[in-house]
Amino acid sequence: MRKFNIRKVLDGLSAVSAVASASSAAQQQQAGNRETEIQETLQSEHFQLCKTVRHGFPYQPSALAFDPVQKILAIGTQTGALRLFGRPGVECYCQHDSGAAVIQLQFLINEGALVSALADDTLHLWNLRQKRPAILHSLKFNRERITFCHLPFQSKWLYVGTERGNIHIVNVESFTLSGYVIMWNKAIELSSKSHPGPVVHISDNPMDEGKLLIGFESGTVVLWDLKSKKADYRYTHDEAIHSVAWHHEGKQFICSHSDGTLTIWNVKSPTKPFQTITPHGKQLKDGKKPEPCKPILKVEYKTTRAGEPFIILSGGLSYDTVGRRPCLTVMHGKSTAVLEMDYSIVDFLTLCETPYPNDFQEPYAVVVLLEKDLVLIDLAQNGYPIFENPYPLTIHESPVTCCEYFADCPVDLIPALYSVGARQKRQGYSKKEWPISGGNWGVITQSYSEIIITGHADGSIKFWDASAITLQVLYKLKTAKVFEKSRNKDDRPSTDIVDEDPYAIQIISWCPESRMLCIAGVSAHVIIYRFSKQEVTTEVIPMLEVRLLYEINDVETPDGEQVPPVPTPGTGSNPQSIVPQSHPSTSSSSSDGLRDNVPCLKVKNAPLKQSPGYQIELVIQLVWVSGEPPQQITSLAINSAYGLVVFGNCNGIAMVDYLQKTVLLNLGTIELYGSNDPYRREPRSPRKTRQPSGDVKDNSFSRSRSSSVTSIDKESREAISALHFCETFTRKADTSPSPCLWVGTTLGTVLVIALNLPPGGEQRLLQPVIVSPSGTILRLKGAILRMAFLDTTGSLVPPAHEPWREHYEDKDEKEKAKKRRPVSVSPSSSQEISENQYAVICSEKQAKVISLPSQNCIYKQNITETSFVLRGDIVSLNNSICLACFCANGHIMTFSLPSLRPLLDVYYLPLTNMRIARTFCFTNNGQALYLVSPTEIQRLTYSQETCENLQEMLGELFTLVETPEAPNRGFFKGLFGGGAQSLDREELFGESASGKASRSLAQHIPGPGGIEGVKGAASGVVGELARARLALDERGQKLGELEEKTAAMLYSADSFSKHAHEMMLKYKDKKWYQF
C-alpha cells in the first residue's frame, strides 16, 4: 500500500486525487521548486457553461409563420424547436420542453407574441418582447386532437379546429377556453350521413368578421354565422380539401383538392363551384375532365390594385411527371410559372404589403420552406428571381464530416478570405433587399475574430466568419476537383475503399498565421494548400505516393525509409522527377496477382486552373500494399516554419517535406519504438506464403486477412492518434530546445522524433531534413488526444510558424525571401538555456504535465474512470490557459495548467450519436461548438464573462413599429359596422355570454417565461402590478433554493396563477404585454 502512495505522489496528482505524504517532499523538490514560481490565475468562478447561439437550417422543419408588420419569420420543427429570423444577424432558437412536433404557428401581429400548436395537442403563447423568448401560457387539450388554428388580425380570440370536426375558442390574453363551441354536427347538414372529417381550415370573411369559413377534410365547407350560431351556407365537393383562401373582397374563396384541382366558389352560390381549374392537368380535346393530378397541398389567393390576382400553389403536378422535382406554381393572369425546388415543400407563405385581409394584398414575395432550404421568390420582378439568402443556412449543403474552430485569429484573415470568396458568388439574384428585416442587432462586446471551418462529404471545405455570435460564409474550397471523377458506378475504380463519398474530409490541420491548410480525406489522401491572391494554372499537379506497411517481417532497414515508387531525399533526385502522372501496369499488381502500389483516387493529369484562394501545393496518397487497401488517416499536422506535414494511421506514420516534395519518414508504428517496445506483439506472417485470394481452398482465410476491416487484426494495431510539432527538449540530456515532433498513439504512448532542419532560404530547398527517433518514450492511460507546451512562466508555447506572404512574388521580393529564415514565435528560442518547459499531454483517460528536459511527471489528473474523453483542447482564457475536455458521458470539464486543478465539471449532454463526437471542439476565449443536428451548429461558452455579456450580444426580435392604417372601407364600413367587430367577439365568446368551458376539455399551464418582458413594461399603475408580480416570482425562485424545492415550486406557481388571474380580471381591457 505504501509503495502505491509514493508512486502517486511522484506522479504529482492534483488536489482531487493527491495523497499527502511528508516523506515525499524530498522526491518532489526538484519539480516543486519550478511550479511554485507559476502563479495560476484561473479560478472556478471564471467558468460557467451556457449555450450561446444555434446556426444553420432548422432540422426537419414542419411549420412556418410571418409577422408582416414586425417582419419576423418563425419556423417550427418536428422536434419541437422554434427558430425566429429577423434581419441578417438577428436569429433566435427556442425549444418546447415536450419535444413534440410543431404543427402550426400564428403570430399576434405586431404584438411581440406567437402561438405555437404542437402534435401533443398543446398550445403555447411565446413572449417575443425579450431577447430569449419564453412561454407565458400553455393550454393542453385532453379529449381532442388539434388540427388547425386561426387568429384573426387584431383579435384576442384564437379559433382551434380539431380532429373531431369541432371548433373551440381560446382567449390568448388569459389562455383560457371560451364556453362558445362550434360542434361539427351543427355545422354540417343534419341529413349528412357521415362525419365530415377533421377541420383543415378556419378563416373569417375579410369583410365580415362575424362569418367564419370552416373547411372539413372530406370536402365540405361551411360559412358559419357566429352571432346566430348557425350555418349560412354549405358548399360540398366530392374531393378532399387541403386548403382554402379568400379573395380580399370576401365574395369569393378558393379551395385546393386532393385530385390536383382548384375550385373557386361565390359565397352566395353554394350549389356548385363558380370555376374549376386543374393547373397541371392535360386538357383533353373532347371536353372530358382532365386527368387527375397529385394533390394541391396549399393555395393562396392574393389581389393587386393594378392587375390580375396571383394564385400561388404547391403540389398538383400530373402523375406522369415521375422524377420531377417539387414545384411551386405561380398563376398570374394568363401566365403560369412553374418554379422547381431542390427539396420537397413543407409550407409557403405569400408576403404582402398589408396585414389587413380586407384590402388589396399587393404580394411582393413568396417564402418557401423546403425540407432542407429556405427560398424567397421575388414576385415583382420578371422571371421571379430568388433573393440571395443572407442567413447561414447552407452548413449542410453536403453533410458535415468534421469541424474546427479558431478564436482570436490574425486580424487580416477574415478580409482575405472574404475577398477571395466574394468572387465565388452566384449571379442572377433579385436586386431587392432581403424582405425579412425585423429586429435589432445586439451590442458587440467581443473584439476578436473567430473562424469556423467545416469539412464535408463531397470533399468541400467552408470557411465561416463566426465573430460576435454571428455566422457568415467566407469562402468555399472544393478539394475533389484535383481528382478524376468516375462518371457512373460501373466506371468506378476497383481501388475505392469507400462505397460513397470517396472525397469526404476527415481531418483539417490549419495554420492561421501562415494560412497553410492541410486536409486528410477518407480515401487515405492528404492535400496541402497554400493561400494566394493570384490566379495560377498548374501544369502538373505535384504528387507523392506513400506505402505504409504493418509487417514486421518486411522491415529490412532500421530507418524503414522504403518507399518503392518514390525516391528518398538521399537519392538527390530533383523534385520534379517524383511526380508520376500514370502508374506503369507492372506496379498495379504484385507477383501473386494482388493489387499493389495503386492509390484509391486518380489525380487529374490535365493542367488545373486555380482561382485566388487556396491552391494545391502537394497531393499525397497512400497506396494499396499486396492486395490490402490503405488504412484511413487518423491524425495529421502541418508546420509552416519547418515546411513539413506528418500523418499517421493504424499502420504507421509518414512525414513529408512539402517544400522539397520528398518523403522523410515512413515507419510502421512498432518501428518507432526501436528496441524499447513495451508490448509483446506477434509478427504477422509474410504475405509471400499466403495464397492468392482467387484460390478456392483458402479463400475465406485470405479474404478476411486482406480485408481493410479485419476486426481482430485492426484492434491489435497501434494507431497514431496525435501529432504535434514544437521546439522543445527532445531528450533528458538536452541543454537547449530544438525542433521536434511529438507522436501520440492509441495505446497511450508518446514518442519524440528529432528534426534537423537545414538553414533557411536557398539551402532549405537543397539540403535534406534529417529525421531521427530520439528514444524518448512517455506513457499514459488511454489513447493520446492532444499535446501542448508551456514555457517556464506557464505560458503556452505555440508551434513555430512562418508569417503569410504571397507565394507568387516578383523577383526582388523572392531574393529578399530567400534570405529570410522562417519565423519561430516560440519564446523558447530566446530563453536562457537553463530554463525548462512543460509538456501537457491529454489522453482519453487522464492528463499529465511533464517537466522538460528532466521528463518528470509533476502533475497528473485522472479525468474519467468509467467513460472516455472525446475531445481535449489546451485553450487560452482570461490571459491564462486551461485544459478543456468533453467526455462521452456528457460532462464538460476544465483544468488549470500546469497544476491540473479541476475548475469546471458540468453534465452537459450525453453522446447520443457519432456526429457530436466527430464535430465537438473547444477554442480560445471560452468558446466551443458541435453539430447538434445534421444541419445546425450549436455554439456554447464555458466562460463566465461571456455568459454575463450574452444578454447584450443577443439581438432583439421585437421593435416598436406602428401598425399601418386600416384601409378606408367607405361604403362597406357602414354596411358591416367596421371597428366594433372585436367588441362583438367579446360579447359572443366572453364568460358572461357563453359561460365557462368544460374543465376536462383543456388544462391551463402557466409558463415560466415573461419576467424580462414584464421588467420592460413596468410603468404607471400597471407597472406597480407588474413589479408585484415580479417580486412574487423572485420570491418563488428564492424559495426554490431551499431544500423543500417541490413545495416551493408549487407555492410559486399557485401564487403566480392567482395573481395573474386577479390582474386579468382587474385590467382585462389592457393588452396582455402591458402587464
TrEMBL record:
Boundaries of every V-SNARE coiled-coil homology domain copy:
1010-1070
Membrane topology value = Peripheral membrane protein
Q: What PROSITE patterns does UniProt report for this protein, alphabetically?
A: V_SNARE, WD_REPEATS_2, WD_REPEATS_REGION
Per UniProt, the keywords (alphabetical) are: Cell membrane, Coiled coil, Cytoplasm, Exocytosis, Membrane, Phosphoprotein, Protein transport, Repeat, Transport, WD repeat
Location(s), subcellular: Cell membrane; Cytoplasm
Compositionally biased, Basic and acidic residues: which spans?
A: 802-816
Which stretches does UniProt call biased (Low complexity)? 582-591
- Spans of the WD repeats are 234-269
This protein's GO CC annotations: plasma membrane; SNARE complex
Region: Disordered; residue ranges are 557-596, 675-713, 800-830
Q: Which Gene Ontology terms describe the biological processes this protein takes part in? A: exocytosis; Golgi to plasma membrane transport; protein transport
What highest taxon heads this organism's lineage?
Eukaryota
Polar residues compositional bias, start-end: 570-580
Per its record, how is this protein called by name?
Syntaxin-binding protein 5
Native species: Ficedula albicollis (Collared flycatcher)
